Structure formats: C-alpha cells, structure tokens
Prior knowledge:
Blueprint (H helix, E strand, L loop, with lengths): L25 H24 L5 H17 L2 H8 L31
Helix pairs in contact: 1-2
Amino acid sequence: SYLDPKVLGKTPKNFGSDAESWEENLSLTSKIKQQFMEDTLSAVIKPYLDTSLDPVQANQQIQEYCFNVSRKSQMREWVEKNPGKPIPSEDSFSVKMDSFSSCFCFRVGSGN
C-alpha cells in the first residue's frame, strides 16, 4: 500500500525512532506506521472535506495519490522502459510498485 511508509522507502529513523527496521520494537513501529497512514490519507482527502466529499470523490483522490506515487517509482519507470523483461528485485528500487491499488469508500449515515 502506498500509505505504508516501508513501501515508500522510509525507515523508522525517518520518524525519529532508534529502530533500525520496521520489524524492531513492533509496538512503536506499528504506531509510527499507523500515524503516517492516517496523516497521509487525511492530507489526500482533507482539501475536499469542506465541499461535501462523496465516496466517489474520495476514491478518486486516493487513486490519484497512488498513481502519482507510482509515477515517481523507479520501478515503474524501469518497467515502462523495458516491456516484457523480467523485473529485477524490488530491493533495488527505493519506492516499490504495488501490483494494484484498490479502494472502497462508503457513506455512513442516513443519506439525507
């Protein structure tokens, strides 16, 4: 998921943690990941919250965010320039490319 800081090439140290990897101190690194995900998702849809954002708009904004992140991916660039060739190890790219991104948005409430 492009909301996961690990997928984006970030480490716990980017957030001020002493942990060397996301697998260390799971109680702390899980909280860091969760906060990053919440903050990123909020930033993606926040500009539209005051304009009665509907589920379709929310979905479009999240998909656009994912598309823009993958556009910056060295892996995506490599795949586009080398069609049909085997993809090298993901470890050689800073930003990983999700096989696909999906999003489900629901309106909760009376619907009035």
